[in-house]
Design a protein that fits this description.
Elements: H1 3-6, E1 15-19, H2 23-29, H3 34-55, E2 59-66, H4 74-87, H5 90-95, E3 98-103, H6 111-123, E4 130-138, H7 140-156, H8 167-173, E5 184-187, E6 206-209, H9 219-230, H10 240-248
Parallel strand pairs: 1-2, 1-5, 2-4, 3-4, 5-6
Bound molecules: 3-methylbut-3-enyl trihydrogen diphosphate (2 copies) and magnesium ion.
Amino acid sequence: MTYKEQLDMDRIPQHIAIIMDGNGRWAKEKGKRRGEGHIAGATALHNTMMHASKLGVKYVTVYAFSTENWTRPDEEVNGLMALLFEKLDLDIFMDNDIRFCVIGDTDRLPENVRERMNYCISKSAGNQRGTLTVALSYSSKWELTQSAKRIAAMVQEGKMTIDEITDKTIDETVATSFMPDPDLLIRTGGETRLSNYLLWQCAYTELYFCDTYWPDFDEEELCKAILTYQQRERRFGKTSEQIAEENNNI
Ligand code: IPE
Ligand code: IPE
Ligand code: MG
């Protein structure tokens, strides 16, 4: 049986976050330039989004470029920005009823990328089938610093008191405030770290790491990750017995 055939379609995660890693090593093993790995990675992203949305996943949030990735050689950074510009195609979002969103310090992106990005964001804002959020020039430490500044400003302006700050205040001031926290986080490429990605939001997310390089990630790999997720018990601090009782009461 394929992984897809084994899935429980009533328990598809609502939100999957992905760290798309391994493009460079994929290219190197094939004797290609790193840039070719990123091109193949863009195709894998397109295909994964389509498969996820067919399975009923409502939110897919992908790590495309981190704050730290700005320190890569200029040639690679410029190549990635050019690829981004080329691949930002509104038709894909409109034809598939997918809302496009971006999180990150987008002021640092080249103007042509920012313009096209904002165009896709505003035109696709009403799309309902699914949401693709791309983390660009993003890091959790950047995001949480921004959140802290916003909250401090609200206190300073007398809009709230320090005692009124709760975890909800942080939920509402981080870049992902418009979506639920990820149920499942997938990292491809064999590394088992979060690399500054969604640290606040992944407090209770199921983590899944696989060795497959991102350009080779396909529908079966996605289904395998979802199946592994479905075989886990999310306890949120409770006991197994409590969870079983809650499930009986549904
Ligand atoms: C992930 O692939 C894509 C980006 C960070 C832009 P990498 O480029 O990190 O690929 P590896 O990890 O070097 O193989
Ligand atoms: C994380 O991958 C960022 C993206 C996938 C965009 P990196 O390849 O930059 O992560 P590290 O440096 O190996 O942790
Ligand atoms: Mg990498």
